[in-house]
Amino acid sequence: MSQASVKEALMKTIGGIQDNPNLSNVVFRAETEWEEDVRCSAKVRGFEPMIVDEPPELGGQDSAANPVELVLVALGTCQEIMYSAYAAVMDIELTSVKVNARGYLDLKGLFGMDASIPPGYKRISFETEIESPADDESLRKLIDTVENHCPVLDILTRAQSVSGTARVAGRELHRLTTDAA
Length: 181
What we know:
Elements: H1 3-19, E1 31-36, E2 39-43, E3 50-52, H2 67-89, E4 96-105, H3 107-110, E5 121-131, H4 136-149, H5 151-157, E6 162-168, E7 171-178
Antiparallel strand pairs: 1-2, 2-3, 4-5, 6-7
Helix pairs in contact: 1-2, 2-4
């Protein structure tokens, strides 16, 4: 798809939302299932199932990326998609966009060895390398726009309400609800 095609698709979607604001509310879904050991499969829309695994030191077979790596993949690819989309809308030519994301995790939190250490990332950092013939002012506007509108960056930086249930033989055994702070 060319930059013009991306712009056309996005402008059509934006126009549809302007005509019918209810079209802006969408739900994304994923179905996951434990396969064996610490390997799982994930289904999204009509795509082939994606395998998720752990490295051997975490009990896995190292057959695929693990969940915390997928968070970094989600951040990097969402940034790249947003650069492509907004560059198309803003008529900024891009030659390439690459993101190098790192997540810093202390395994003592994961293994419950220290209650003061969270089980997830302590921090995430990313570096974006952009190649473009555009001027610095245009690129700064693009960068600001991307960083202010990237859904995954927003998910990672803004408190989210999360709810879930655990069911055994169809009966609810546990309910989790967190409120956004």
